[in-house]
Write a structure and sequence with these properties.
- The longest helix is centred in the middle third of the chain and has 21 residues.
- Helix 2 packs across helix 4.
- A 6-stranded mixed beta sheet has the order 1-2-3-4-6-5.
- The chain is 35% helix and 19% strand.
- Strand 5 and strand 6 form a beta hairpin.
- It is of the alpha/beta class.
């Protein structure tokens, strides 16, 4: 299913640039083809390949299950987790605050709020890098 997540990307842009100068492009990545994936506990907007995107969601569900089982964590109200997996560095950089662009290489970031968590992933050198980055951000 192809989806252009205008509302989510617009909100993410506003959060990333609140109180800062404008991004170089008004809505980086908005006109690219994004694919939408959903699992029981995660949703993913991805510019990556179908195989990489599906594997990412599968691994996230497995990681969540392992934590809940290993540490006997009670599942309270489920908190939605939205993941954005960018396919170009330029689009990803548009969502960083201007003073952070170009100074450090960002692999991703997480924005945890009381009602939702959003994980944003930069394009890695290899698709295998996605797993370690998203695990770090989720944990």
């Amino acid at each position: 299913m192809h989806f252009r997540p205008g509302i989510f990307l617009t909100g993410l842009l506003l959060l990333a640039t609140a109180g800062q100068g404008a991004a170089p492009e008004p809505f980086p990545g908005l006109n690219r083809k994004w694919n939408y994936y959903q699992s029981p506990n995660f949703e993913l907007y991805s510019g990556r390949s179908d195989a990489v995107s599906r594997q990412l969601l599968e691994r996230m569900e497995l990681l969540r299950a392992i934590f809940i089982d290993t540490f006997k964590l009670p599942v309270r109200l489920p908190q939605p987790v939205t993941i954005f997996a960018f396919d170009t560095q330029r689009d990803f950089d548009g969502y960083l605050a201007p003073e952070r662009r170009g100074k450090v290489t960002w692999a991703g970031f997480c924005l945890a709020q009381p009602d939702r968590t959003t994980i944003t992933l930069a394009p890695g050198a290899q698709d295998e890098d996605l797993g370690s980055v998203v695990y770090h951000e989720y944990i």
